[in-house]
Amino acid sequence: MLENLTTKLNTLLIVNYLCRPHQQFLEDVTDSYIVAACLDVMEEGCSNKNNIEFVEKISQKVMDCFNLGVTENSSISRIRNDLEAIHADEQKLFAMRVNDHYQCALCGKCFTSLVWFKKHLTNKHHWKLHQANTNEHCNNAVGQFLFMSLLFRDTCDSYKMCDGARSVCNAHFEWLYDSALKHSKYKIWLWRMITYTLSILGFRESFEYKWNISVNLNGGIRNNIPNDNAVEIQVNNIKRELNTQGANKSYESAKQICMTTQVIHAIKQNLMRTSRTAKSKSTRPEADKSGDIMKMVEFLRQKGAIKNVCWNSFQNFREPLSVINAEELHAWIGEQKRIANMFM
């Protein structure tokens, strides 16, 4: 029976991989784990007459199943503690800085290099400077996958609902993951997004920044898209109009198209609205994924309790955040602060 289920699931995975987008496949896997965990919780007994309290209680138990709470994330706690300790050491060293050199408060010896000054304090005066712990190992591959998947889902939903506060809150975690995976461009972008809203901008400007984090082009609920996507749509519209000119392209024609594209589109929309012209729909019908999820849930429950599921292929799994070097991250933050002080 288990072999048949394994064969069916492998076939299902191949079909999903070939026929459906990767994002949809990841969402199906996430839904399968959540549904399976809910069934485990309901079997343990979790009944309540109040539907809202029932859903909240189920959700909390599912979160506890996979240790999805931020406080349970050992890597985040480690990074926070390391950064606080390194910052405290840096403040002590900065207090002994005189002009362009460091002067030891215990023996009065001067150093121009911070590295040699640290060695002097540790070797001569037996100071204990904090050393970041990078040997932490986490093998909970399922919990980490669900944490990242739900973070991605929540971020997409925050942009659709134009919830800037939630987008900025999620940006803290996304910045850590980009730091771990060495995505420099997105790491800097998310860092500046966080610093703008928390410290650089005033209260009013920060509120406007979060309020205008996405734009709605078609109206309706959950139809907002990020501003950079809206810019890409506008650029593609301009390119499409330019391509119709063939060899007659020029700077003046491109300038005129840039200035009139949005105006022409607005006039077209008004004419369609007044004449009650129906716009042809280009959206595809949603695929029914309930059958796929049911097969995945059936296979997962054959493994026993979901919170104890462990896959042999991920025995050497290492959590992405565990590779972050707190000392390097602290130095990077300091460099970004110096850049901000210089240019802002």
From TrEMBL:
GO terms for molecular function: zinc ion binding. Residues 102-125 form the C2H2-type domain. The keyword Zinc applies. Keywords: Metal-binding, Zinc, Zinc-finger. The keyword Metal-binding applies. This is C2H2-type domain-containing protein.
